[in-house]
User: Fold these one by one.
Assistant:
Number 1:
Amino acid sequence: MYQIADKYNVPGLKDLVIEKFRRSCGHFWDDDLFPAAVRHVFSSTPYHDKGLRDLVSATLSDHLDLLHKPEIEALVVEFNDLAYGLLKNKSGAGWRMWV
């Protein structure tokens, strides 16, 4: 649905999908199918479209124990932007340059 909303420029549908996915992440973050959802999000959305990607990063940041699952570890290694999203979420203030 998210891809269709993006393709046909239907922002209301995109917002609805984001909200439904946010709720699903909140309830099913420990489900066996969660890694498949993560893979789909990162393989089917463009890098600049952070709607669903940020939700995945936030969910993983809230449940860091998921990183011990081989399926999630493989996704973090495969999708660099997922790893970056996790680091960014956990850093709080973002990146700092130390002199």
Note: DSSP finds six helices and no strands in the chain.
Number 2:
Amino acid sequence: MNVHEYQAKQILSRYGLPIPRGEVATTPEQAREVAERFGVPVVVKAQVLVGGRGKAGGVKLAPTPAAAEERARDILGMQIKGIPVRKVLVAEASSIARELYLSAVVDRASKAVVLMASAAGGVDVEEVARTSPEKIVRATVDACLGLADFQARELAFGLGVAPGRVREFVRIASGLYSALVQCDASLAEINPLAVAADGSLRCLDAKMVLDDNALFRHPDLEAMRDVEEEDPFEARARAEGLSYVKLDGNIGCVVNGAGLAMATLDVVKLRGGAPANFLDIGGGARAERVSAALRIVLADPAVRAVLFNIFGGITRCDEVARGIVEALGGVRAALPIVVRLVGTNEEEGRRILGRAGLVAVASMDDAARAVVGAASAGERPEVRR
């Protein structure tokens, strides 16, 4: 789960990180009021769950309260990567001598949390890693021991932090690591970590990605979810208890098991198709869940054909077949549906599908070929409910 910049800053401030004063405004008048209370130049920043705000004109400096109102009026309502800006963060502006980058991230390759830092802050770290990998310094953290002070100091030395500010940097790095671990986040990022004119360090921007699977332990963080900016298909799937990710293709995929789902996407692409989604109905899915999954896929206007890839172990093939038939009973769609059905109660599942006029195939490759051909056949027909 992504959170807004102002929310990430609220979280990180609990761990002692130096966050400039800031408040959220939803109208230009509120932005002016905040700037008047601060009594200093402010920066008005669009709050959307995508990157590239600065390049899109969503971050502007305001030297006066009147300017803050004007900047907020310009930003509110604009669209950044297709997402409308509904609120802005009005934050105290800071003088910047240098911009650094610092993040804590779960690194699956090393099976540990890694702290990454760079003296080239304020830009996309991916671009820095690609063009100047020597500018990135790393520290791999032992999960049992936690971040050691000497590791944080080595990062500070690698960034060229002034000797008198190393202890301050260590506190920031330790707080960032603690926030990542204690909030069950997969990423906690400060970009830029600014060195002010007086040499002090300040966190001018922040980003956090929280693990959805751990949110049951953090109701306060769950409450930060911005449903207005969440993909509607993903929101609907989450409400149904389904694992769903929207993709850019035109072939809807319904699969049981995350590993099989990833393999299905690969096979579809191998055969020249483009998956419209990742959707894992999970093990032991009953007919109701299968029906809900199909309805979500059919609601996507980009979908031209649907592929079911079911390996019946815990999930019974007859239950999946009933779910497909049930969903089609409520949604009259002329979309082609290809079903690969293998495993527990396979024959019964095939009989159920046969009575509904559907045919199941046994080979995943044959299913992929069939659905790619069907999706390429023409435009999406009308779907009536």
Note: The CA atoms of residues 255 and 261 lie 5 Å apart.
Number 3:
Amino acid sequence: MEILNSTLDDVTTILKLYDAARSLQKAKLENGAVVWPEFDETFIAKEINTKSQWKMLIDGEVACVWMTTFSDPQIWEDRNTDPAVYIHRIATNPAFRGRNLVAEIVAWSKQYAAQNHKKYVRLDTVGENHGLVAYYQKSGFDFLGFFNLKDTVGLPAHYNQGPACLFEIVLD
């Protein structure tokens, strides 16, 4: 397994993984899932160019992707002043589902946070998907609760479809 920054050559793969994630979310709508909007190539390219888009390779194949940032004020509001790494849009290649890759991302993100002098690893999701809440808790995150965001202007559209579920890991 290898974790690297995504490159512009990965844009098509990332968009395919987001499509697969949307299909899974649509299948789980009655469980409280919220479906991601479609993201365009320029949106993904911007994240790649700022080195905030990541990929996990297993045997040379992209197993999953995600995005990180060091600031997330619209979602984390007053807590955004805390030194944290924020994880967004984990999308797993269907061929690698069931391998608990989030645990690998958690292990990596703890190291990444420490290297960048951060005290927290944080994650959010939207909607009341209790199965996903339990999964993130099993992966090591503390569930902080459901929150109605005050300002979603400029955020991807799915942030208007339900409460935000906030999760964090406090580093030692």
Note: The helical segments are 11-27, 41-49, 73-76, 101-115, 130-138.
